[in-house]
Amino acid sequence: MEIFQFLADGFLIAFQPLNFALIVFGCTVGLFIGAMPGLGSVNGVAILLPMTFLVPPTSAIIFLGALYYGAMYGGAISSIMLGIPGASTAVATTFDGRPLALQGKADSALVAAATASFVGGTISVALFTAFAPPLAEAALAFGPPEEFALMMLAFATFIGLGGDDIPKTFFSIFIGLVFSAVGLDIVSGDPRLIFFDLPGFYHGINFLVLAIGIYGIGEMLWTIETNKGDVIISQAKISFRRIMRAIGALRHSIRTMLMGSFLGYFVGILPAAGATPGSLMAYGVAKTVSKDPDSYGKGNVDGVVAPEAANNAASTGSMLPMLTLGIPGSPTTAILLGGMVIWGLEPGPMLFVNNTEFVWGLIASLYAANLFALLINLAFIPAFLMVLRMPFTILAPVIFILCIVGGYAPTKDMHDVWLMLIFGVVGYLMRKLDYPLAPGVLAIVLGPLAESSVRQSLIMSHGSFGIFVERPISAVIMAITVVLFVLPIVKLVKRRRAEL
Amino acid sequence: MAELKLRLSRRAWLLGLATGFIASAGTMATSEDALAAWEPRKPVEFVIMAGKGGGADRLARFIQGIIEKHNYSPKPFVPVNKGGGSGAEALRYVRDKAGDPHVIMATLNSYYTTPLRNPGIDVDIAKFTPVARLAEDTFQLWVHSDTDIKTVDDYVKAVKEAGPQSWRMGGTGKGQEDSLVTGMLEKKFGIKMTYVPFKGGGTVAKQLIGKHINSTVNNPSEQAGFWDAGKSRALASFTPKGKLSGKFGNIPTFEELGYGTDMVYYMQRSIVAPPKTEPDVQAFYVGVFEKVYKSAEWQDYLQKKGLIPGWLTGKELTAYFTKEREAHRKLLKAAGEIK
Fold this sequence. Notes:
The complex is a heterodimer of chains A (500) and B (339).
Chain A: H1 2-14, H2 17-35, H3 41-48, H4 57-81, H5 91-102, H6 106-140, H7 144-159, H8 166-180, E1 183-184, E2 191-192, H9 207-226, H10 229-232, H11 240-249, H12 254-269, H13 275-289, H14 302-317, H15 319-325, H16 331-342, H17 351-354, H18 356-389, H19 392-408, H20 414-432, H21 438-460, H22 467-470, H23 472-499
Antiparallel strand pairs in A: 1-2
Chain B: H1 2-32, E1 44-48, H2 55-70, E2 77-81, H3 88-96, E3 103-107, H4 110-117, E4 129-137, E5 140-144, H5 152-162, E6 168-171, H6 177-189, E7 194-197, H7 201-209, E8 215-216, H8 220-228, E9 232-237, E10 267-273, H9 279-294, H10 296-305, E11 307-312, H11 314-334
Parallel strand pairs in B: 1-2, 1-3, 6-7, 6-8
Antiparallel strand pairs in B: 3-10, 4-10, 4-11, 5-8, 5-9
């Protein structure tokens, strides 16, 4: 088959000494960039892009691809270890990763994250290899109504996320939606919800600022209050046998891993979505279909596996529209796309025809990058666990400083640092009053996407909601959404009946 | 406990090392002060009036790449996206940085329209310091290649047959370039379309190829990939006769098709500095961008992506900005966006 011929050629390119060294280097750098709160793959790729002029384009994209992957692995590390999301793509990983660490199971959470990332990455590269052109066509079939249907599907999976207290879940979602509306109205172009006339609100509320506040600062306050820090975390032990055992235990999570991989990949392909919504949706779906949804958020390994498989799969997925359509599927690929222009390549439908060496060299290198990111990650786990042995009195100020840096880095605006601190206190209070945080976080990510797609759809149909059911793809997704919305309510009613 | 002490001391050692580096970097910087011509002493903030990933952002990062590659500046240019409020955030930021020599901004047409539409931000672009105009980006009228529409006449007929309710024109946000060009089309041909706003030109192009909208007024760079693959068709170019060269030059202009000379619209790609920038600082930036303009990469990009070259600096650039601002005031009034 032609594909295997191309792929074999690609491997020859990826294993040239320079390219191979760049894969290893890129994975390692990416791992640390991803692990630093506030610095994610977007920043890493943007900062290192100018360095790639020193090497040929194929080597350059191989390096940046490896870095992108490494960052996806790395993001999980600080989410699990410190409770601060290392990158926006790793926010969902804090939901269960942090509780696991607090129970002294940081090692199994880290192993689960690394393994799931590997599986997600590999499955998605395989899908990429086999079906790139037809999948690009499928992405084109997604117009505004289909995007909106997909957003509704994501929200539906999150109704079940907040546990039995549906009113509190709704409250959390609505607060998130209000925050997501701050900034520029995409249709009229007018500024809205500019609180106290502060210019910092013009760029909207950055999602990462909110997440770092709620999870980083809020989590730290919570830990101080409950004084869990010193007692349990420091018991985290590490040995080769424990790692092997943790990998073995993952056989129960294979289904979740596969689900996360396919879902993440597909969401990644859709332009404008990217790995952050992908990972959050995978978490929501994993919880909804789980036999034991109550254990999510309290330290379920599947809650780490689903988003981590999904964010790596989505990062590969988002390269597909970049290469085949010239449209970025995520902020990081948007910058990669800029890089391709500088290297003198023309991303778009003709790239697969005119630059086979570039395309297949990249695809082959992604297989290799995946493997190396896994190995490097596993090798570093003991070192990461050392951090946890630090007494909380030392760790707390470190977390605090990392949160401040993380709040400042995305926008370089002090306004966002203050905002992050406020969100930290709000997050702590919400947790104390037992309001679920995850649905609110999802709402602020998906809110703007949902808003623009519903408004575009209604402009297209001149106000008729029929557009969502007249179009086949959108109709199918909407039908699934309705089922998912109703499911938790039916479950709840059934349980009430049983109790009577 | 002993172990902890050891680790702490190692940390202290590393900290010392880092401080040393920073200190020596500091002395290097001061020694540069002795040079006669002004040069940046720290990284230059390269403000972009749009979010990450859009056409303006990609272009600014491309320019940054050229500067890095050829070492045109002793200190790096660091892109900072301030896209909030159609660039209102960036305009306000640069205005407040008056006199700061380490800030410059890449502009697009929201440089005119945003202050006109939001008088509240209190920005007068005539007070900004001009650096250089690097190019003017162009607009074309695009349809999907599966349609029978081959000429502007076909297009006007098709829009009229479909009616304003079902003919969808895609573009960027309301009051921005695409919607102004759409307004020009509607006025010229007495047609009405449903304007669907999307986040960026790349998304607009994709929506056309996915057949979710019927036509666009994309820049060449946004449609080039699909055009090469035979997925889209350019009907006419919003440029004066003979201005565009290369493959985009083969697209007929509205003027050539006999619709008069008024169907022309450009997107300017310029660099400005904050108000009250010192002349020697201004001279440094003009020098850097002159090199960028003359670089093979830039000239090649202009040719490939259908931009019109047009170096402009100093007073002429300010005059150009004020002239364009007045033209946009008229366009916005006609579109009912401002009074």
